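Protocol step 4 of 6: record predicted structures for both targets in the notebook before any analysis. Target 1:
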Amino acid sequence: MSIAERYQRVAAEVAEAAMAAGRAPEDVLLVAVSKTVGPEGVAEAIKGGARDFGENRPDQIVLKSAAFPEARWHFIGNIQSRRIPEIVASATLIHSLYQRRHAEKIDRAAAELSKVQDVLIEVNVSGEASKSGVAPAEAAELVRAVAALPHVSVRGLMTMAPAGDAQAAREAFAGLAELAAQIRSQLPADDAAVFTELSMGMSDDWREAVPLGATIVRVGRAIFSESYQE
């Protein structure tokens, strides 16, 4: 299978899973995580219909967003403070914000570009030491603080589930959805209206995420790796 064909297959499966969960296919956005391929792989995915791509390194999102400005670029990696201006210049949505100091720098970088930067707050729902993100108990306070910044819009939450354990993944995703609902109920109306996104689910666990409310799934290997096996 080509990258284009694999993208189309995954997109069809995501749409089917959404409908099986009683949701519209367009309610779940498929982000093709292109961090393992070069511009040729991105071009192949675009041929298959991909429009949203995820990158975890600043240099790669800068390079690829410049090469494919027609696509929407998502930054999903660790935020390095000194690279924030480059990330903001390239990213449609930043998924991995969990430090207030980074939010303030994103706000300044966005102001210089006369844009409002959409972000998600990363939450470490599982509590694993190997994962980054704000603790669930501290998420609401961070959301309120970031939402108050004039050039940042908090669009929702993101998490990564424990690997290789479907039940643990379901628990993490259900926990994120419950937390998001709690936070949304506490936000001012204008902030609550745009606080709608749940970025959760990757190649191995997006099927657990969609029935639990994922609005964005981040899929890399199932699209870009010839050797990926479900």
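Target 2:
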Amino acid sequence: MTTSLETRLEFTKLGSRIGAEIRGLDLSQDLSDEVIAQIREALNRHKALVFREANIRTDEEQVRFASRFGPLTKAHPTVASVDGAENVLPVDSEDGSANTWHTDVTFVLNPPQASTLRSIMLPRYGGETLIASSAGAYQDLPAELRNFADTLWAIHTNDYDYSVPKNLEHQNAEDRRKIFTRIKYQTAHPVVRVHPLTGERGLFIGGFAQRLRIVGLSNTESKDVLRLLQAYVTRPENVVRVNWEANQLVLFDNRITQHYAPSNYDDQPRRLNRVTIAGDVPVAIDGTKSQAIEGDSSQYSEVVSVGAGA
């Protein structure tokens, strides 16, 4: 597919609330500012974009594409990057699967604004990625519950065991957990976050908020409230199931989505590479910003100002 200033990209919706795809857009090209603006517009609208036949073959090309949307984060605050590529995180089945609903790196002060995933090695079956709209979840809340959620703050941390039963854990789970938690982070985020570009409100919770609590509530109360709110995020109406194929890239808005990688491909290898784009500090509906409690993430990601590639 060729593009020009006169070309309007045509994304095909994958669901009414989240997800759209396009085939044959060559992301390895030096895309014009107009094309990038259209992709950003589509991301704001659909929240998750699937690029099939994307023609991105290398980490360098993925990094170059992702950097068109803003400065990049390092690969991860605690986990090692791909050798020689400080911005690229391997998402590899050999290290276990992220089969819990989460938003990327919410335990730091300014989580990534968006994530890109590129297919490297895929199983013959299974291995999809589920992505959920937290904006759809917020809209679904009864007015009384929505008003309550508007007032809440949750503590997010990486000191989290993903709640995987011991008999289902990956063989290297304990070693991976030690690496993941070698630097401890805790951050207080609003349960309802306002998207800085669209003004939409979304439930900003997910796996890293489950370990601790909601500010002002007991542990038991916090778990019950988070479980209730999380059930709205994962309603089928709010979820798109992305099937992977070779030469594919997925771009999703980390500010207003959660995702989940089901472990449904037996012992087959599955490998994606992730590059994330630096984000802003989350803001509650009253304008109050998130606050770091433990851990300095400044070496992982700069803070992006809205309007400057945010």
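Step 5 preliminary note on target 2. The chain has six helices and 15 strands. Helices lie at 33-46, 59-66, 134-140, 143-149, 173-180, 219-233.
Proceed to step 6 after PI sign-off.
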